Each structure stands twice: as C-alpha cells, then as structure tokens.
Automatic annotation (TrEMBL), chain A:
GO terms for biological process: proteolysis involved in protein catabolic process. Keywords: Cytoplasm, Nucleus, Proteasome. It comes from Daedalea quercina L-15889. The keyword Nucleus applies. SUPFAM superfamilies: N-terminal nucleophile aminohydrolases (Ntn hydrolases) (SSF56235). It comes from the Eukaryota. This is Proteasome subunit beta.
From TrEMBL, chain B:
Belongs to the peptidase T1A family. Pfam families: Proteasome, Proteasome_A_N. Residues 8-30 form the Proteasome alpha-type subunits domain. Its main location: cytoplasm. PROSITE patterns: PROTEASOME_ALPHA_1, PROTEASOME_ALPHA_2. Keywords: Cytoplasm, Nucleus, Proteasome. This is Proteasome subunit alpha type. It is found in: Cytoplasm; Nucleus. The proteasome is a multicatalytic proteinase complex which is characterized by its ability to cleave peptides with Arg, Phe, Tyr, Leu, and Glu adjacent to the leaving group at neutral or slightly basic pH. The proteasome has an ATP-dependent proteolytic activity. GO terms for biological process: ubiquitin-dependent protein catabolic process. It comes from the Eukaryota. It comes from Daedalea quercina L-15889. One of its GO terms (cellular component) is proteasome core complex, alpha-subunit complex.
Length: 265, 247
C-alpha cells in the first residue's frame, strides 16, 4: 500500500519504472525535488597540501609534512601546519584539501573532549582515531561527498607503535613506513629501503635524518612542495610537533640542465 | 513551615501572596541536607572538593562521583540530588560544546554559567516540572584566569573566591574567610580544602564519607583533573592530623 496520497492515481514514472518493477512501497515519486539540482558536492580539492611522510622508529612514530597549502599551482599559504596532535598519543598528518582537513581537526578535537569529559579513565589512541577517520571518510564517500584527503595516523598505544593510512575513499592500510600523494611515488621507496628491514634499529636522530632526506628529494621533484617543513614525533612521553624548519638545498645542477625552457643550447 | 497547607507550594508556577516560590525553597532544602561541597578560587587555579556521604558499605569505592568534567578546562561539583547534578553536568557539556562551536575558542566559565543558569531557571517557571534539587559549583581556568561560580536551584549564579554549599556550608564559610585565597597556590589550596572538608564532617551524625578532590591550574596544564593519588593521600592524611590537633 502506498501511504502517500500524492502518489495515488498517478501513472508510473516511465523514466525510472518502465516495466513496473518497483514494489509499491518504494515507487519513486513523480515529482522532483526543487532543490536537487542545487545541491553541489565536492568535485575536486581547492586549497591543497602535498605529501605527508611517516615512519616507525625505535621510540615510536615520526611524521613530516611541509608548510605549504597550494591553490592549484600557486603557492598560496606558506605557513600551514598539516600535522595535528589528537589527544596525547596520536598524530594525524593530512594531504589533500586543507579545508576538509580543518573540518576534521575540529571533529577530532570534539571527540577527544567528549572522551575527556566522560572522566572514565579511557582515552582515544591512534587505533581508535584511525578507525574513526576511516569510518567517517567511507561514510562521506558513500554519500558521494568525500572529504578530499589522504591521511596518515601514527602514535603509540599500550607501548606498541601504530601507523596507518586512510584516504578519501575510506581505503586503509598499515606499514612501518608510509607516504601520501607524490611522496608515495618518490619518497616511499627510499623510506622502505631505510626503515622496513628493522625499524627498531633506527634512533630518533637517524629517523629525523631519513625524513629530512626524503623531504629534500620531494622538494627537488615535487612542484607543489616547500622547503619549510615540520616533524612530529610520538613517543611514550607524548606528542611533540617541531617548529618549522628550513631544508638546505643545492641548485647548482640546474645550470647544467639543457633542452627545454628558454635555453636553446 | 508556615507554607504547608496553604496551597501555594504545590507548583513552581505559583507565587505565594508574599511573593515567594515555595518549590524553589524546598529545592534548597534538598541541597542543605546534602554533603558539603567546596570550591576555592586561588592565585593560579581552582580546586573543588566534595564530602560524599557513603550510605552503604556495599558501594564500590569512588562510585557515584559528584565532581564531573564539563570541558577540558572546566569542572563541576554538585550537592543535593545526585541525578539532578548529573543532568546539569550533561547540559553543561552540551552548552560548552555549543559555545565552542559558536565562537571557535574555549568558552569562559562566566559564559557557560550564564547558559546553565538560564537552563536551571527555566525549571522554576512551569507547573509541569520541578526545580533542580541541587546547587552546582562550577570552576575553571579560562582566558580571564581562574573563575568560580555557584548556580542555585532558583537559577541565580554568583561568582566567588571561595564557595561552599551543603550541610556544612556555614562552618566551611567561616574557615574559608580565614584564608588568603588570592595568595594561595592550587597545591596549598588542596591541603586547605581537604582540611575543611574533614573539619565540617560531623562524625557523630553522619556515616562514612569519601573525599573527592579535583583541580585546574598551571600544575595540570589548564586541564580539569582529579588530584593525583599521592597528593590526595597526603592531603587527607594532613587533614586527619589537623583534626586531631583541633579537638
């Protein structure tokens, strides 16, 4: 029985229900929603951050991201922090749409506060934060309105390191070294070579050097990157996000590049 | 009480001929019979303490907490009906979250207390509801510094340097007046507040009680947290000692 009187006595919608296959109770309504055409969903990211790198090492997890938020190919904002501490044992790094990331920061801060005010002695660790983000990202992509990010979630829980990835589709995976975006092509092979054989052998200083090396490679290769970056560490002592630091780079080789641009020979 | 039998105390929506609302006054009685709750606003923070009367030895220790956290930097202690206190705490959490999403900065204690006060007051307007049977002490540290308020069942709220409600409030207030609150540190205040709770507890009349202590200040990084175990133990030990010297 169709309980919507406006549907009574009206013909089937030939467009959708040509052979009368819809059961009565879910027959599509004949009228169209006035606002349907007005609803817009995210089609592309606007202000974007590039790669995030993260590795596991002896004392925990280390993550790096530069301070740039690009507007297309324009280096629009050069002082953006793309690493966000969640609670006392988790770090989230974001590439992709920065406004979506800022929204996620608010949502995460909200659930951390909710958990804190409950006062039951429990707190959110990296595994919970990652699961939450994965569910939220997948829910949004299922509404055809994704949060346009690729996120790395790292931290320490019950003395164990945690590092995992989640993106705008809700895809997740986990490894001892991870990278998003361009970094997944350029930096990840280097990270894997240095880290994956034995993360426990990597000291904090060595981990910092590995990330610095990869950030430098990315700065040389990735046109949406910046030589100003931050490194976050999560150890059993807690989360710390460094001040912005500058990469030292050497562009002497550029003189010798021939074959394109304004140079003829 | 002269009000009984006159018919003016049956509903919160009816005044008595001399302009009082008896249901609100009865709500205050519920508070006066409850364990003492004290709040101290000191130099660098706020300390809250509750004398929680244990009505059965079968209860799990630390169950039915009367001190709750409203926001990261705001704590709440209630005296009177416990369930009412919990309802107000839940409301206060919602209000704090709403103020945060509205202004995008951690709410001041004053702003939160104003909102919760309005909510409590709404329950004094209608015959279909009863006023809250609890007085709430809300304390926190915000951008204006330490802040401490009481919200009464009538919905009024006042700011205090030292606040006491519940059974032992009179004695507690005279003790509070002896303290130089604006010069005390939160750590010192923990000892004072524990001492006063032990002092006002009436051993002869009351059963056992549990001391609840929480603080917000520089030492907690601006977070509302329970007082750590070692400090708690030391404070209650000293409180018991001073009680013996007192008697």
């Amino acid at each position: 029985m169709d309980h919507f009187p406006t549907n009574w006595g009206r013909p089937r919608n030939e467009l959708y229900d040509q052979y009368n296959t819809f059961p009565l109770h879910q027959r599509p309504t004949n009228h169209t929603d006035t606002f349907t055409d007005g609803v817009q969903r995210t089609q592309q990211p606007i202000v974007t951050g590039t790669s995030v790198l993260a590795i596991q090492y002896k004392d925990g997890v280390m993550m790096a991201a530069d301070n740039l938020a690009s507007y297309g190919s324009l280096a629009r904002f050069r002082d953006i922090t793309r690493l966000h501490a969640v609670g006392t044992s988790t770090i989230v790094g974001a590439s992709g749409d920065m406004s979506d990331f800022q929204y996620l920061q608010r949502v995460l801060d909200e659930i951390v506060t909710d958990e804190f005010t409950a006062g039951d002695g429990n707190s959110l660790g990296p595994a919970e934060v990652h699961e939450f983000l994965a569910r939220r990202m997948y829910a949004r992509r299922s509404k055809m309105n994704p949060l346009w990010n690729a996120l790395l979630v790292g931290g320490i829980q019950n003395g164990k390191r945690f590092l995992a990835f989640v993106d705008l589709l809700g895809t997740t995976y986990s490894a001892s070294s991870l990278a998003t975006g361009y970094g997944a092509h350029i930096a990840l092979p280097i990270l894997r070579q240095d880290v994956d054989p034995n993360p426990d052998a990597i000291t904090e200083e060595a981990a910092r050097e590995i990330l610095r090396k990869c950030m430098r490679v990315l700065y040389y290769r990735d046109a949406r990157s910046l030589d100003k970056y931050q490194i976050a560490t999560v150890t059993s002592a807690g989360v710390s996000i460094s001040e912005a630091q500058k990469l030292d780079t050497n562009w002497d080789f550029a003189e010798k590049i021939r074959g394109y641009g304004s140079q003829t020979q | 009480m002269t009000s009984i039998g006159t018919g003016y105390d049956l509903s919160a929506s009816t005044y008595s001929p001399d302009g009082r609302i008896f249901q609100v006054e009865y709500a205050n009685k519920a508070v006066e019979n409850s364990g003492t709750v004290i709040g101290l606003r000191v130099k660098d923070g706020v300390v809250l303490a509750v004398e929680k009367i244990i009505h059965s030895k079968l209860l799990v220790p630390e169950a039915n907490r009367r001190i709750q956290t409203v926001d990261k930097h705001i704590g709440l202690a209630s005296s009177g009906l416990l369930a009412d206190g919990r309802h107000i705490a839940n409301r206060a959490r919602d209000e704090a979250a709403s103020l945060l999403s509205m202004w995008r900065s951690p709410p001041t204690v004053q702003a939160l207390v104003d909102r919760v006060g309005l909510y409590v007051q709404a329950y004094t307007l209608y015959s279909s509801v009863r006023p809250f049977g609890c007085s709430t002490i809300i304390g926190g540290v915000d951008k204006t510094g330490p802040a401490l308020f009481i919200i009464e069942p009538s919905g009024v709220s006042y700011g205090f340097h030292g606040a006491a409600v519940g059974k032992g409030r009179q004695l507690a207030k005279t003790e509070l007046e002896k303290l130089k609150l604006s010069e005390l540190s939160t750590r010192e205040a923990v000892f004072e507040i524990a001492r006063i709770i032990y002092l006002v507890h009436d051993d002869a009349k009351e059963k056992d009680f549990e001391l609840e202590l929480s603080w917000i200040g520089d030492e907690t990084g601006g977070l509302h947290l329970p007082v750590p175990k070692d400090l708690y133990d030391e404070a209650s030990r000293k409180a018991k000692e001073s009680l013996e010297n007192f008697e």
